[in-house]
Design brief:
By secondary structure, the chain is an alpha/beta fold. The protein contains 19 helices and 13 strands. The chain has a 5-stranded parallel sheet, sandwiched between helices. A 5-stranded mixed sheet has the order 6-4-5-9-10. Strands 7-8-11 form a 3-stranded mixed sheet. Helix 13 packs antiparallel against helix 14, helix 15 crosses helix 17 and helix 15 runs antiparallel to helix 18. It is flat and about 80 Å long.
Amino acid sequence: MKHIHFIYGNQPLEIKEEVKNLVNTLLPPENKDEAVFYFDIEDFFSKDQNQNQNLVGEFKNTCETVSFFSPVIMVCLANLQALQTAKKQKEPLNKELEGINLVKQDQSSDLTWFDADTLLEAKDSRYRLTGKQIVKKITHLAGNRYSVVLEEAWIDREVVQVKGSKHYPISIKNFLLKKLNKDLQFDSEATTPVANSREADGFVTLLKQYLESPPPQVELVITANIKHTRELNKEVYSLLKKNAKEVRKTVSYDDFRPVAWTIQRAREKGIVLDQVLADLLIEIAGSDYSILNTELEKLSVLIAADQKITPEVLLESVSQSKNFTRFRISDFLTQKDLKNSLECLELLLEGSATDYIAIFSIIAAQFRRLLKIAWMLEQDLPEQKIISQLGINQWIAKQLIKQTGNFETKELENLVVFLSKIDVQLKYASKDAITLLENICFLVCQSEFKNSSCIKKHWLP
């Protein structure tokens, strides 16, 4: 019988429940509370080297000390993906650094470098740099943490960001922290920490030792939040493959829609959902099992036993994911509701002002969909045929078919053309993006596209 268990997937709730199942299966019921020990692998690679060393010692003592409370103990190690592969350590954040662009007017060294992303109009200059050119060395430490060594000339420099007519200087270190959105520590060449420090090496060596020969009283449970095992440290995974019982749980991608899981989990909580309602719940809340489970738990408390769940009940009761909140603005626009469109836009950009491209993409996709519906309606296609061709949630599709009646076909054609033309402009007008989006809301809700010339019906971007 194998005493090492490796569980992976990218649905944390499912992994957690599998670990709980192992606890109930492998440990004596009277000793469970005292016989389970949890460690997070990311914690072994913190900035505090003393803490790392102490944690390695604690892990070793836990595994090798005989327990007075239970003949068997379980040691759970979470986030194996924190042990990066050699390939990832080689050139970390390479793509992100290439995406950072700085520009100045001429070669004079005393002139300011601008953050190109904040400029409405590109500066006519041959003097440009990427983030990769100002960073001498970057080392992945663990998890979201990196050590950065700047080129000497850039250590104390500032970058200017433009907002409206004003210029805001920002230190290069704060600029990189903001742009990369990582936990960065800035070091000199002499003090750069090595990714595999003594403490890290000590932990990896100890882990390999236990994977080859676990202590007799220990059930070792290792979990990883990954899509594929190639994301793992190759040496460690080869030992797991040889010596562990491997359990592959759900691996979800962007188009993942766990309708069957949602129906079954709802039934366990005394809630009856059909496929359309389960799919709508996923549309609203997202496809993460943890969030879906929480929303179903909430519904089981809010909904009376004899109350029928309808799409309207879900819309009113379920917390909306960020993607669905973005969808709501396009929903208000298809109803030509200017007040709610602008309020929804303000709410979305309040959380993150850089979301304007995603918001625009959803608006554009929604109106392309409405135009397709309008053309199909003109061909007298039955509603069910239209719904099947759209390939989206049936209830949402029915709402869109109704909302198509708020527009003339020519109006939708002109609107889609307008959105395709403004797409590039929006991507290069970061500081005026909000104004452009507000203008779109106004033009749509005021039916300004009724009077433009029509287009050929075979064309659709």
